[in-house]
Amino acid sequence: MKLARLVVPMAALALFAGCSTPTGGTAFEVAGQRVSMAQVEDAAAGCAGLVQQDSQALTGEVARMMLSGQLAEAVAEKTSTAVDPAKRSQALKQLQGEELLADEDCAVAVNGFADYAVINQELGQDKVRSAIKSLDVEVNPRFGGWDEARGTFSGTSGSLSMEDISSGEILGR
Fold first, then answer.
1. What is the pLDDT of residues 59-108, one digit of tens each?
2. What does the alpha-carbon distance between residue 66 and residue 27 come to, in Å, rounded to a whole number?
3. What is 59-113 written as a DSSP string?
4. How far is Cα 83 from Cα 68, in angstroms, rounded to an integer?
5. Which of 52, 98, 117, 122 has a CA-to-CA distance to 88 between 20 and 30 Å?
6. How far apart are CA 173 and CA 170, in angstroms?
């Protein structure tokens, strides 16, 4: 199997507010909800087994997917919106991510990504953007720096753009 990028039309995100840099075992934190490096690495290993890729090569992509899930959760809470399981299932079909649910750790990243797609479609670009602007987002320096103006991780490890997330790119076969 190969790593493929599948695109679903979604609106682009712009600005993210309140950033600092966690260290050690924290991959990122959104609105006080911490995701550990171990969680990201476990999810990357699970996804890697399903797509026949090296888990280290997928760590950044999986972290980005998990971040999108945390953003979706925070926006849903902030706007009193719930992700309908049927709409999540539909998003997973569109993203062709259903097979990635076979691994429990990978499923966390994939479901988070699908939830982000649903929240963005339900609320619309402007409302999601507005809700995210007020969130405190912290990113581990391992992923580079967080550029509030561009909504990206940037650094020597490459760039993980939130615009890529909003384009619907996902791991697949």
1. 988 998 898 899 899 999 999 999 999 999 999 999 888 999 999 999 99
2. 10
3. HHHHHHHHHHHHHHHHHHHHTT----HHHHHHHHHHHT-GGGGGSHHHHHHHHHH
4. 14
5. 52
6. 10
Cα–Cα nearest to 131, from 144, 122, 143, 139: 122
Cα–Cα dist 113/97, whole Å: 10
Question: Are 37 and 25 contacting, i.e. CB atoms less than 8 angstroms apart?
Answer: yes
Amino acid in position 69? G
87 within 8 A of 118, measured Cβ to Cβ? yes
Quote the CA–CA distance of 19 and 12 in Å, as a whole number.
Answer: 20
To the nearest 5 percent, what fractions of the chain are helix, strand and coil? 55, 15, 35
Determine the Cα–Cα distance for residues 71 and 77; give it in Å rounded to an integer.
Answer: 10
Quote the tokens at residue 84: 């309908």
Tell me the residue type at 67. Answer: L
C-alpha span between 172 and 151 (Å, rounded): 24
